[in-house]
Amino acid sequence: MSAAAADATGRWKTIDSDTGKPKSIVEITRAANGTLSGRIIELLNPSKPNPVCDKCKDDRKNKPITGMEIIRGMKADGANEWSGGTILKPDEGKVYKSKMELIEGGKKLEVSGCIAFICKSQTWIRQ
Predict the structure, then answer these.
(1) Which of 84, 109, 110, 108 is closest to 98 using CA atoms?
(2) pLDDT, tens digit, for every residue of 88-119?
(3) DSSP of the chain
(4) Sign (positive/negative) of CA torsion 49, 57, 95, 68?
(5) Rounded CA separation 68/98 (Å)
(6) Whole-structure pTM value
(7) Distance, C-alpha 24 to centroid of its chain
(8) Residue 6's pLDDT is what?
(9) Could you tell me which residues are beta bridge partners of residue 24?
């Protein structure tokens, strides 16, 4: 496997686990300390133009969702996995403990978020 395939940085199309439809484009970048973060760079078919995170409770409250950092502080946990960070679901305003794993040779990224023992996962597609 090439180094690029084992890297989660880049642009990913998020797929809504409820509808199966593409929801947004998220760009994942690596900080100087090696942690990954991700921000929404484009919303696909938003329910209203230029939505804000009115349900957010932290520094992202009432900020535009486009451009918002939704993944924070993910640390490498093996070759193709990251954990220890959080992911925000802007339409709920909820922050989940998160982990990510590259699958299918780096073409897809399985992203899960958990509160207590309840976890949801989505498979994102590399752009």
Answers:
(1) 84
(2) 999 899 999 999 999 999 999 999 999 888 89
(3) --TTTT---EEEEEE-TTT-SEEEEEEEEE-TTS-EEEEEEEESS-SSSS-B-TT--STTTT-BSTT-EEEEEEEE-SSSEEEEEEEEETTTTEEEEEEEEEEGGGTEEEEEEEETTEEEEEEEEE-
(4) positive
(5) 17
(6) 0.91
(7) 10
(8) 65
(9) 14, 43
